[in-house]
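Usage example:
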Amino acid sequence: MRKSATAASPHIHDGSSTKRIMLDVIIALVPASITATVFFGPAVLLLTAATIAAAVLFDWGFRRIFKRDVSNIFDLSVVVSALIMVLGIPSNTSLWLSILAAGVAIVVVKHVAKRLLGGAGRSMFNPALIGHIVVTELTAYGTSYPTPMSWLESSSYFGADAMASATPLQLLADGNMLPSLWQLFLGLHGGTMGETSILALLIGAGYLVWRRVISPAIPLAYIGTTILVVTLAGHDPLLHLLSGSLVFVAFFMATDYATSPINLKGKILFGIGCGLITVLIRLYGSTTEGVTVALLVMNTLVIFIDRLTLPKALNHR
Amino acid sequence: MSGIRKLAVKIRGGAKVSHHKSTAESESVKMPAPPLVILPMQQHIGAPCQPAVKVGDNVAVGQVVGKCDAFISAPIHATVSGTVKAISPCKFADGIEVDAIYIESDGKNILHSGIKRPDVKSLEDFLQAVQQSGIVGMGGAGFPLHAKLALKGNARVDTLVINAAECEPYITSDYREIMENYTDILAGIEWVMKYIGMDNCIIGIEDNKPSAIALLASEIVKQGMHRRVSVTELPSRYPYGAERMIVQAATGRTIPLGGLPSDVGVSVLNVSTISALNRYLDTGMPLIQKRITVDGGAIANPQNVIVPIGTPIRDIVSFCGGYVEEPEKVITGGPMMGIAQHNDEAPILKRYNAILCISAKETFTPEAKPCIRCGRCVETCPMNLTPINIERYTERGNTNMLKRFNVSGCIECGSCAYVCPVKRPLVQHMRDGKQVERRAAAINA
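Running the assembly step on the lines above writes:
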């Protein structure tokens, strides 16, 4: 025989890959994408497709210009970042703003900040989160949202003149009438494209946990803390769970590998921290949502949480 | 069923590996003596042996051909009868070079005249007999058996754990040992418990081998040993067969980091080791042959064969019908911890239990893609280490951080690299990290 390969053990592998993990996240977001399209019209599809295409192009362009490795451009991680970002913005966002946000997310956060802040393999902030902030916090798009199903009555299917409405949390802050809990659960209320249907999100989240792509520790700690503190403060926990982007962010953004802790204890701590900040902002802050700031703050603390929760080696004397 | 004990502690982490134990139900076949055997003078952990024969000498089966006065060493015996053709260096895949005795077989398998049943009346007799048997730990490490048993003199050891977990994929040689030689196993346990003075014995077997569990459990009862000997069913999860894991799972005792099983009053022996011990005490025939699982996608007839130690791998391969395709790797041991040999000319050593001729599609090539921080290595590590950190500080040569992340605690089981989605060569990095730490310690000392 010819010379046999002499690589170090182990000689077998479970077949997992980044591409497969990212594909699973995309699959998990299919239900939310469908509800988004049904509730907010075909504009969603256009916005999503254009933003993802732009993000991939930005990634490829950056790698080509700065002579970086282009071999893992097909691992779908950029597609996932762009998809999560786009589902986290309202459907009436202008196409150009969405593409700009994707550019910021991919080029500034994923490539530049990674080298400036994080070092090997990690950027401090979740690119999808930064893209979301560019759209919702820096422009007027974060203040009014299209009303579900209103695109049907609109003269244009792309819904530019669809009726606008506030999110349940905004309604709550203004002391207005709220949709029923069922409506909230199914997602028939104002909000960003992907966050409204808790049902669709939970189907996707269940798939990710079943596929072991994410550990349920962060979302459970996050949502659990939020519900607990809201209840203790005398507010309706179900309302906080079912409205706003809590579930979407907890399962799909807070679990981002690069920007969350690696071990179980750290994940729980991270989730609790996210929950506490979210509640503080929701109950006492000037904005109604709170999740973006919570995640942003906790992202910066990941490096310390990892250090604090270093697991003790088994059998350590 | 009586005789089956519950798991004391469930170990954390570990990987769900596919079993591939297709050779489990094929009865072992004894392979005839090959034309040439190669006996390296180091087949164990410890001091290498010196050749006790000269080129041109006639040797008989069971005759001592290599010996050493050092305590941690094991004599090497001729495994065929014939003529010593050469004594020349032989290089292992792990880079070690030692002298090897090449014996040309005369095909007659004449037994050495000195072989007789050892007379054992005391602990000293017993340990001396064990030393002369040439038996080393057959789970893979190859620690001389007599040294393992004698070291217990100062520490109080009350429990014998028999490792029959066989958690590595493909390998079924320990399973066949149980099915074919269970009487030797139980008798061997009696010997060790009697002379070393242990109170109880736990045999750990993974639950993917229900017939072995049932057989041993019923035989223990039949022979009236059930008060002191029991079987513990381990989950089929890699690496339950690792020494630390099986001690933890079977006894609930935790071996301290950097410690030995004897630190917690336990002695761990592989099931094939204890069986070989009884055969020696019964017949006086030293360790000259081994049961080897021959498997992998490139082999024509996967099976268990009993071969003379020193048989070149290629002779065993042709006995098993040759290759059906060019193997990508020839591995001695299991696919998780085994060593990929340079080629198929290497001889079978005492500590080997399998030859895997793996086809290209069964194995994989590590890549150097950046870590995505998925945390699977941390989740999987049975020692509760953080391979992700160790790898980073190995690359930077940071000994302080390596110490802090307990690189020396790594048992190199390979679970982390098995589950890594970007296929980083984590085990290689752990080994390098240990080297870095050791070198720094040597400089500071």
